[in-house]
Amino acid sequence: MSREQQLAEAVVGLADPFADDVDPVVLADRLARACVDIAGADAVGVMVASARGDLRTLAVTDERAAFMELFQLQTDEGPCLDCYREGRRVDARDMSACSDRWPQVAPFALRSGFGSVHAVPLRVHRQTVGAVNMLIRKPGGLPPLDLELAQTLADVTAVSLVTWSADRVRPADVSGRVQAALAAKATVDMASGMIAEVGGLSLPEARAALRAHAGGHRGRLLDTAQALVRRTLSPRDVLTADADAPPARD
């Protein structure tokens, strides 16, 4: 199987929290395994935050990763904890040079046979809900593309984790969500038509103005469309805001 096929299969497996054989532990285990098989880590641990905000290990690929996760929690230091607390990726490409930052974890990682460590956040809507610890035997770490792949896999998994439910999804639930999507599309089309009529625009131009207004106000496209349909937002306000907006960068 090619790497592209592996990636596609991994994304499909991580993006389906409603399958009968899926639960949070299965999702975390799939993520950890994908970071080894696709991103190239030698061992991986996945931690998620409890209701109190402290991290708990959800999945590991082997005993070495389990000990690394446990040691970070016990010493309250390390790449995974910093990644979670700062909400950004942490790269330790040479653990022998990290003793000042992590005086206990860095030597432990080296004794455990890991020369470099990366940690990527599990995040949903800018909120960090955990972190993925990727352990590599040799110093130098992983290439940037592999780290981007790992972050993408982590982002997909984070969304699945927060949308997973112990209740089985019924056919009626699926149908209801599809109908809601169609209703949302109809609302956006109606709002775009209102903007097009007032501004003398084509429908694609009107939809672009609607999208620009929603993005400029950090709102959802559907919420903006509903405001137009309910007459709580004027099409002229959308057009004026769009005209005043700076040109988009390529």
UniProtKB/TrEMBL annotation:
Q: Does the keyword Transcription regulation apply?
A: yes
Q: Which InterPro entries match?
A: ANTAR (IPR005561), GAF (IPR003018), GAF-like_dom_sf (IPR029016), GAF_ANTAR (IPR012074), WH-like_DNA-bd_sf (IPR036388)
Q: Which UniProt keywords apply?
A: Transcription, Transcription regulation
Q: Which domain of life is it from?
A: Bacteria
State whether keyword ATP-binding applies.
no
Q: List the Gene Ontology MF annotations in alphabetical order.
A: RNA binding
Q: Where is the ANTAR domain?
A: 168-229
This chain belongs to the protein called ANTAR domain-containing protein
Q: What is the lineage of its organism?
A: Bacteria, Bacillati, Actinomycetota, Actinomycetes, Kitasatosporales
